[in-house]
Amino acid sequence: MIAAGIDAGGTKIEVQLFNADWLVVESKRIASPTDYDQLVAAIADLISWVDAQVGKIIPVGLGFPGLIDRNTGFALTANLPTTGRPLPRDINVACSRNITFLNDCRALALSEAVFGHGKGHRTVLSLILGTGIGGGIAIDGVLWSGPNDISGEFGHTPLAAHLVQEFDLPLVRCGCGRMGCVETLIAGPGLARLAAALTGIQASPPELMHLRATNPTIQRVWDIWCKITAELLHSIILTVDPDVIILGGGLSKIDSIAADLQIALHGIQLAALRDTRILCAQGGDASGARGAAFAALHEARHV
């Protein structure tokens, strides 16, 4: 094995071990702790598991759903209990070694641009649809970023006003602290919130998708969800103009999600635009682990 990657989300944490051909040799998945100290301990345990499997120290990358302030080293997250805490320092101390850190959505973009469905395309955009919403941009196989490392924080843009008015959508406070972020209605918990607001039905996303086949009311909820998400995609396309959009996260496992979003996007985009292809991640809902591992190996070779 040459490297390991950890994909940490608000619901699950998965570690993957990769061989020289970048194939997954071993993997392990756990539920995400809701307590900070338990979270650090759980990630440290997964890294110890890597060491035990390999029998030696290899580069480990961690993709997590948030930002690390370059000046303070403190984390800012909406869906993990890490805001205001020195996550990289605490994990490095717990592991007695340095781990490579990057945003999980950017890790997905890197993974798919180098190895997955984005390979061979110049501009690859990732969109994670999970406990939260986020994305990343890779150009010629290299992540694009800026001075604040916030490129891809698509989930914290506002809901489209005309859709809020048309469907009487609820405006709620996001985990980031802002009001009315698109994440609040299209992330996994947001889809459940949307169904409850429009129908009164309390159900998880998997339960809703099971009901969708026989319940026209739930199908309407899904259609509205697709419209909200398509508006987000359209705004991103007008800004970035990617060759391909890669979906990751738990919701990306929903049957027909890429096709449904493609149809919804085609119905609202400017007439002069060609359709931007939407695909689910080749590496699955934890494809970001591969991107994190690749970044860790690259960093180790250039130290």
UniProtKB/TrEMBL annotation:
Name of the featured protein: N-acetyl-D-glucosamine kinase
Keyword terms of this UniProt record: Kinase, Transferase
Keyword Nucleus: no
Main enzyme class: transferase
Family according to the record: Belongs to the ROK (NagC/XylR) family.
Molecular function in Gene Ontology: N-acetylglucosamine kinase activity
Keyword flag rRNA-binding: no
Pfam families assigned to the protein according to its UniProt record, in alphabetical order: ROK
Superkingdom of origin organism: Bacteria
EC number: 2.7.1.59
Residue runs in coiled coils: none
